[in-house]
Amino acid sequence: MDSYDIPTPGERRYQALTDLLKTATPDEDVTVSFDDWESAAGVALPDRARRDLAWWASLPRQCQSRVWLRQDRRADADLEAARVLFRHEVYERDNTLERIQSIREHWVGYARNCLEATTIFETNPHRALGWWEPHEIYLLHFVADHQ
Questions:
Q1: Which residue from 14, 35, 63, 118 puts its CA 20 to 30 A from 71's CA?
Q2: Phi and psi of 86, rounded to 5°?
Q3: At the top level of its lineage, which domain of life is listed (predicted)?
Q4: Domain map (residue ranges) of the chain
């Protein structure tokens, strides 16, 4: 097992969710109520998880996100209903070209919406250069070199 695959202490706090997600097949969505998750895990969700969608964002720098990302899932939380849907998506290696294009269009649209929320005046030199536009970024992970 590579050291990358070893859960961090923060991830171990959510081991019950890891175990639940491992039992689902890729074509199954997994819906978990916040209360059921707390019962299974034996720990309360942070208050932020019940009030802030950002807690459920699929960001590898967040220990809770790595729990579902390691299972090739994305979290879609419904704070009003106090539940989260874990969908097997995006990380599949054999996506069709149409699916890859759909994923890219979704993320470009998301990036544009975020960037539009920030005021960029017509006189801003970044606007003329197009720097406010989303860019494709590639991340290379060299496991053996820990880079």
A1: 35
A2: -105, 115
A3: Bacteria
A4: 9-88
